UniProtKB/TrEMBL annotation, chain A:
Family per record: Belongs to the GerABKC lipoprotein family.
Database matches in InterPro entries: GerAC_N (IPR057336), Spore_GerAC-like (IPR008844), Spore_GerAC-like_C (IPR046953), Spore_GerAC_C_sf (IPR038501)
GO biological process: spore germination
Domain Spore germination protein N-terminal: 24-199
UniProtKB keywords: Germination, Lipoprotein, Membrane, Palmitate, Signal
UniProt subcellular location: Membrane
Protein name: Ger(X)C family spore germination protein
Membrane topology: Lipid-anchor
Entry keyword annotation includes Lipoprotein: yes
Highest taxon of source: Bacteria
TrEMBL record, chain B:
Protein name as catalogued: GerAB/ArcD/ProY family transporter
UniProt keyword terms in alphabetical order: Germination, Membrane, Transmembrane, Transmembrane helix, Transport
A Pfam family reported for this protein in Swiss-Prot or TrEMBL: Spore_permease
Keyword Transmembrane: yes
UniProt topology in membrane: Multi-pass membrane protein
A GO cellular component entry from the record: membrane
Family: Belongs to the amino acid-polyamine-organocation (APC) superfamily. Spore germination protein (SGP) (TC 2.A.3.9) family.
Regions crossing the membrane: 12-30, 36-57, 77-95, 107-131, 143-165, 185-207, 219-241, 269-294, 306-326, 338-358
GO biological process terms, semicolon-separated: spore germination
Subcellular location: Membrane
Main location: membrane
């Protein structure tokens, strides 16, 4: 009998203890942080901006009804001398417990990145078991992280998702920006042979308007976030920006280009042919000769003709070979410009040092301390590009050729 | 010694689960940097020789536990003391694995729950299993072996498909030459986890087909060694050496990197399942060895009676062996291998083997003329 009683007692105790009421977190008590922004104020304190999802107003849709009455996110600010203090102090004006497991975006203010650097702020994010190091990092260009996080966005209701998806698809389709995860940034910060690059996000338009819900009722929002440029980080500090084609050239070297358009001229006509890259492979290798390192880059691109605005005979193989040549030159030009620009910045964002490290670890030991300042700027880079045209869409010759013949 | 028999396959499964055990969770042989896999494989080769040693001893005395045969080898008094020391060694290792397990849970999932409670629940399950005997443990092993491999293979496929593994992280190979790799292999990975197979000296007498002991032992060690090497290679490939050096549980960080098709992400549960299942087997085997050996040493008829009292000792030992996680890991990496593993895994068995060799030769020499 007593054995049975004991068993019953045991089962009941287990039911209470094992079902996990210890440190339980109810959904209604969590403030789900969708994005975290970090700036620094005049007093030298960190200013954290927390973009918190407003659960009732996200689900919206046709049935929801609630959507549209209030903003989908709430943005809160807090200050502190380090990240932990700042984050915990937020609880004085937040009715719920912050929950970082869904924080997919980290925004760093440009001033903070320039003056103090990003080294000191990342440890807690790396260490904390709740925060994911797969979160993407962006830098608020020409502004504070707060500006970026405050802006509401059309189409994707949660602004953090807007930023993330913008970054993802612009990387995939255009290739001037890349989506960099926190753990990649940290790995690059540590490595002496590679410096991090981080995409910049810029806020365009009227700052006052950005945080108002009404602005979303216009077809052309007056204030919008835009991915712009790649930040070069050297020794943990932002030292410069790559824009437009120089940024794209860097993305080529980093082997991150997925699809992009290469525009080439044909005879007199400018921007006559658009070559659409479908896939590419970039190999970077290092060679050491006479105690000096050199880098060779080999790019192999495959793609289609996406558009012609001049009468080009695409059925002719010789023409295609010429187009391929032009595309190769264009890619080479972009990459060359980019490498020259970055060499002036003296920050090896391409990972050439890593390549040297891999091919000659002994030599790398001598060079690694002065790599960025001494060896990288003087580095000889040889490049070969192979571009292939595979298809030309649904048409071969453009109707433009016939128009030309009729005249 | 209880009246039980396990099959060759069951022994194989137990050795693999045991060896992979807690070694899968920690950054194994990471002092060898990107050559960790090489250090693990070297350690495994060393492990083969250690296992040969235990196997020879087993061949001399196939029907009794080491606690009995040490008394035959070096005499009753000394043998008993040595056997008793071995029981303490097993119990301490069981406590260490339990602590590893508890720390993982405390860091990842239960930051507020007292670690004693995490330990207590696992110890209860372990005690229950050990009371039921080695056959039950072996059958459970067969069941979970499949689960662990399903987890491992699906995790590996996910990592491959999401293209996270960058083999460039493994270069340059042998950056500092071969000597650091050998040093790590023979100061760490040889003892942990491969040398810990000393616990199977306590299990081998239960094997129903003694002829297969050698091939089973070696193939199981080989499989687990290769698996561990693959796991470290994948960790380094995904995270890079610098990050593996910083993490306490690299496999978890690796699994957290999986982000596939917008919904296959946050697969931490893969890791948690593996931790709990593998931890359970490793603790159970050490604990079983301690219980059965103590029963054998003190002539207690029902070993299961000892499971509860020793289980509580295990629980308290696991709490008091270290005051924080750093101390625990530091002891595990620097002190235990030299002061405990080296004598208990290699020196003492080797001495026993030499003495047993001479004793048995004499016996055989005397026996021959009479037949």
């Amino acid at each position: 009998m007593s054995r049975r009683l004991f068993l019953l007692f045991f089962i009941m105790i287990s039911a209470v203890l094992l079902s996990g009421c210890w440190s339980q977190r109810e959904l209604t008590n969590l403030a789900i942080v969708s994005a975290l922004g970090i700036d620094k104020n005049e007093k030298g304190e960190y200013v954290g901006t927390f973009q918190i999802v407003n659960p009732g107003y996200v689900a919206g849709g046709l049935q929801g009804g609630a959507g549209g009455q209030s903003a989908p996110v709430t943005v809160r600010k807090s200050t502190g001398d380090n990240m932990m203090e700042m984050s915990r102090r937020l609880s004085t004006h937040l009715s719920r417990k912050q929950y970082f497991a869904h924080t997919n975006l980290l925004v760093i203010g440009e001033d903070l990145a320039k003056e103090e650097g990003i080294l000191t702020i990342l440890d807690v994010l790396d260490r904390d078991p709740e925060f994911r190091t797969t979160a993407s990092v962006v830098i608020a260009q020409n502004g504070t992280a707060e500006d970026v996080l405050k802006a509401l966005s059309p189409i994707d209701k949660i602004p953090a998702n807007y930023v993330l998806k913008t970054m993802k698809y612009t990387e995939e389709r255009w290739g001037e920006n890349i989506d960099v995860a926190l753990h990649e940034v940290i790995t690059d910060l540590i490595s002496p042979g590679k410096e991090p690059v981080i995409t910049g996000f810029r806020f365009t338009g009227d700052g006052e308007q950005a945080e108002k819900l009404e602005k979303l009722q216009n077809t052309t929002p007056e204030a919008l976030l835009q991915a712009d440029g790649l930040a070069i980080i050297k020794d943990g500090k932002l030292t410069g920006w790559l824009d437009g084609e120089t940024a794209k050239g860097a993305v080529w070297v980093l082997d991150k280009i997925q699809n992009t358009a290469i525009i080439v001229n044909w005879k007199e006509k400018k921007a006559a042919i658009a070559y659409e890259v479908i896939r590419q492979q970039t190999n970077v290798s290092a060679h050491i000769k006479n105690n000096t390192p050199s880098i060779s880059i080999h790019i192999r691109a495959e793609g289609d003709i996406g558009e012609v605005t001049a009468p080009v005979d695409l059925t002719d193989e010789q023409t295609l070979l010429k187009i391929e040549k032009k595309v190769e030159q264009e890619i080479k030009k972009q990459v060359d410009n980019s490498i020259r620009h970055v060499q002036k910045e003296k920050a090896d964002i391409f990972g050439f040092g890593e390549a040297v490290h891999r091919s000659d670890p002994a030599a790398w030991k001598k060079w690694k301390h002065e790599w960025n300042d001494l060896y990288f700027p003087e580095l000889q880079v040889n490049m070969t590009v192979d571009a292939f045209v595979r298809r030309s869409g649904l048409r071969n010759k453009s109707y433009l050729s016939e128009v030309e013949n009729n005249h | 010694m209880e009246k039980a028999k396990i099959s060759a396959y069951q022994l194989f499964v137990l050795i693999v689960l045991f060896e992979i055990g807690s070694a899968l969770l920690v950054p194994l042989a990471i002092e060898a940097k990107q050559d960790a896999w090489l250090a693990i494989l070297l350690g495994m080769t060393g492990g083969f020789f250690i296992f040969f040693m235990y196997h020879r001893l087993y061949l001399y005395y196939p029907d009794c536990l080491p606690t009995t045969y040490v008394q035959k080898i070096i005499g009753k008094f000394c043998g008993r003391i040595l056997a008793f020391l071995y029981m303490i060694y097993f119990l301490y290792l069981a406590a260490r694995v339990l602590r590893d397990f508890g720390e993982v849970l405390a860091v990842i999932a239960y930051p507020v729950t007292p670690i004693t409670l995490n330990h207590a629940f696992l110890v209860l399950v372990v005690i229950y299993t050990v009371r039921k005997g080695i056959e039950v443990l072996a059958r459970t092993g067969e069941l979970f072996f499949v689960l662990i491999y399903l987890l491992a293979i699906s995790g590996f496929i996910l990592l491959l498909v999401s293209g996270l593994i960058d083999l460039n992280n493994l270069k340059p190979m042998l950056e500092e030459g071969l000597s650091p790799v050998i040093k790590v292999a023979f100061t760490q990975s040889l003892f942990f986890p491969f040398g810990e197979a000393v616990v199977f000296a306590m299990i081998l007498p239960y094997l129903n087909n003694p002829k297969k002991a050698k091939i089973i032992g070696l193939s199981a060690l080989g499989l687990s060694g290769i698996n561990l090497a693959i796991s470290m290679t994948v960790n380094i490939g995904v995270l890079g050496v610098s990050q593996v050096l910083r993490t306490q549980f690299p496999l978890l960080s690796t699994i957290q990197m999986i982000q596939l098709a917008e919904f296959l992400e946050r697969l931490d549960i893969f890791f948690m399942l593996a931790v709990i299942v593998l931890g359970f087997f490793k603790i159970s085997l050490f604990f079983y060895a301690a219980v059965i050996g103590t029963a054998d040493l003190f002539h207690i008829k029902k070993p299961s009676q000892l499971a509860f009292p020793i289980g509580f000792v295990l629980l308290f030992l696991s709490i008091i062996i270290a005051s924080n996680i750093m101390e625990h890991f530091r002891e595990g990496l620097q002190i235990v291998p030299v002061y405990l593993h080296l004598p208990f895994q290699i020196i003492l068995p080797l001495l026993l083997l030499i003495i047993a060799f001479f004793k048995n030769r004499k016996k055989r020499g005397q026996g021959k003329p009479s037949t």
